[in-house]
Amino acid sequence: MVLEMKDLCVDFTGMRGKVQALRNVSLSIHKGEILGVVGESGSGKSVTALSILGLLGSNAHISKGEISYLGRDLLSLGKKEMQSLRGKKIGMVFQEPMTALHPTMKVGNQLAEVIKRHREVSKREANLLAVQALREVHIHDPELVAKKYPFELSGGMRQRIVIALAMSAPPDLLIADEPTTALDVTIQQEILQLIKELNSKRGTSVLLITHDLGVVSKVCDRVMVMYAGEVVEEGKTEAVLNAPSHPYTEALLHALPDRADPGQPLQAIPGEVPDLQNRPVGCAFASRCSKAMDICSVSAPALEPVSGNRSAACWLRGTRH
Ligand code: SF4
Ligand code: MG
Q1: Ligand 1 centre distance from Cα of residue 278 (Å)
Q2: ABC transporter domain: from which residue to which, for each copy (predicted)?
Q3: What pTM was estimated for this model as a whole?
């Protein structure tokens, strides 16, 4: 097991008081596996990632739970230890590549600097390895690109460079939070393909956060669906997408473009994510669920095994819709 999270609860304290951003979130990532975390914005996907990376802000508080990385308890690590783990053992790729790049430093130098931090190599060797790293993320003419500044490159190129930076240590786990959301559709496919290729070539485990089940179906071995800070369904990608056990997963699938009639606008899921400050007593999805029953607004269903290796948190669980 590369990463294991158990019953994580995270609260945020804001102007309006305390908000429970994560409620009993558990997940595991095996060696070489790609786990997709899917859900609308505000479902807790990014908070889950930031918790693992030790990058939650000072207004966040982990009130319960455990995170272990290759058997090490991450929540007991000091700032320095966590810092050295990040980048070296756990790589990060975010939505906007510019946030991860130094704006006034040539990309080759940025890569060489990171490589020197992780490996005992000379400056010359680091420069050669930087060009090699660019080649591995399929950048044509890497010698030329190494001499460019980030602003001289396209968004897709920048994201490739961020991936090269993240993979340079190389890490055992790559956390990618909406890595393709800001890119053109064709570039999105290429970046996803690249992540999948690095995963299979190097055996790097990946936590891939996305709001798009289409992305999950193309890339992920397993998927975890989040709603209002909770895991509502989890299982092997094919099983979950072929026959979802949770009405929210089903609604996300119906919102996929290729399911919609050609020329028709995308079907959005009616209603809104509940205000986490005033979390409903029962199932958080009840106000938007077409299958809601009396019990749903009274009592919240727990995440429980449905069949095989999958789980769902729904009073209808185990039944076919
Ligand atoms: Fe819908 Fe009830 Fe299942 Fe919640 S528990 S998803 S409201 S059927
Ligand atoms: Mg997010």
Answers
A1: 18
A2: 3-253
A3: 0.93
